[in-house]
Design brief:
It is built from ten helices and eleven strands. The protein is elongated. It has about 325 residues and is of the alpha/beta class.
Length: about 325
């Protein structure tokens, strides 16, 4: 408790706490107080309240909530009415799409007609959450008008006290393929699409550009990781990757999209749908990477990239016979 001393300047206080005027200076206030002190008129000492020691109360963090696996099974249906699956089937064979549904346990939901559920299941097979999204069946774009169509299963079901703690979309595949390189993109749609074209990697998605952070990526420690940010996000993701490398991560960030004339926010799906040829990154992430000169993609190479989706063996054919286009220019694959 602090030491109490009387202030010599009694008349700085106009009234005693008992209500009497202090013009005669009979109330002697304590220093630093206006209504605490000794009143000679009423012979009363007005003491400050005793300051109590405040002890911090530790509140443990709420446990991470999870859904029952039966819920995943319940919504793994109605794909004929699923807009995302409709669009995916317009690009790939039915069996390839079916494999993708099973691989990522993609679901359907009637919260919006034709909506998709992307389940976030961690490496320990715990169902952390389910993100509900709506796409345009004809072009595969997200429906953002008149509002952004994104919701969560626990919100729609009004699950009480649900503590959402996200993980990477597709994380449940990490232990299933211990020797594969892990490829990270932002959108769940992109991960699903790329997993069909390039099954030699495990394609995971952060779900948002802000989710590219240690809290979600720590489960991948010890794996070889290549990241493919959307256009204009390279520098942000690269900064995170640099900090992760300092923690011992084997991680690199590809700048595939930065050297294109695609609009900001474009991803690998936009890149490939434009007929551009996808090439693996040849360098690790750096803070200020030196850009290679923009490589011209010829019409023949664009045609080859389209044919590659139907038959990947075409690359081997071109390399083996060193084929050229009609102008005698070598076709790069």
């Amino acid at each position: 408790m602090r030491e109490l001393k009387f202030d010599k300047n009694r008349k700085r206080v106009m009234y005693c706490p008992c209500g009497k005027s202090n013009k005669d200076g009979k109330f002697a206030p304590f220093k630093d107080y206006h209504n605490k002190g000794y009143c000679h008129s009423c012979d009363t000492t007005f003491f400050p309240e005793i300051e109590k020691e405040v002890k911090p109360i530790y509140t443990p963090p709420a446990p991470t909530s999870k859904h029952d696996y039966d819920l995943v099974i319940k919504y793994c249906r109605d794909f004929k009415n699923n807009n995302f699956i409709k669009w995916l089937k317009s690009k790939f064979k039915d069996e390839e799409v079916q494999d993708t549904i099973k691989r990522y346990l993609i679901g359907s939901h009637n919260h919006w007609n034709g909506a998709t559920i992307y389940w976030q299941i961690d490496k320990f097979q715990r169902v952390r959450s389910g993100k509900i999204m709506l796409y345009n069946a004809s072009n595969g774009k997200r429906v953002q008008e008149p509002y952004n169509h994104i919701n969560w299963v626990h919100t729609v079901l009004k699950t009480p006290h649900f503590n959402l703690k996200q993980c990477l979309f597709g994380e449940h595949l990490v232990n299933e393929f211990p020797n594969k390189i892990v490829a990270i993109v932002e959108a769940e749609k992109t991960a699903s699409y790329m997993s069909i074209l390039y099954p030699d990697k495990i394609w995971l998605a952060t779900g948002s550009k802000g989710n590219f952070k240690y809290e979600l990526l720590k489960s991948l420690y010890g794996r070889t990781i290549i990241c493919y940010p959307d256009k204009s996000e390279f520098n942000n993701w690269n900064e995170v990757a640099i900090s992760l490398k300092e923690r011992g991560f084997n991680i690199s960030v590809a700048d595939v999209l930065e050297n294109t004339n695609l609009p900001d926010g474009s991803d690998l799906v936009d890149y490939l749908e434009r007929g551009l040829l996808f090439r693996e990154p040849q360098k690790e992430a750096q803070r200020e990477p030196q850009r290679e000169a923009k490589q011209i993609i010829t019409d023949a190479e664009k045609d080859v990239s389209i044919l590659y989706r139907k038959n990947p063996a075409i690359h081997k054919l071109i390399s083996t016979f060193d084929l050229t286009d009609e102008n005698g220019i070598k076709i790069n694959v």
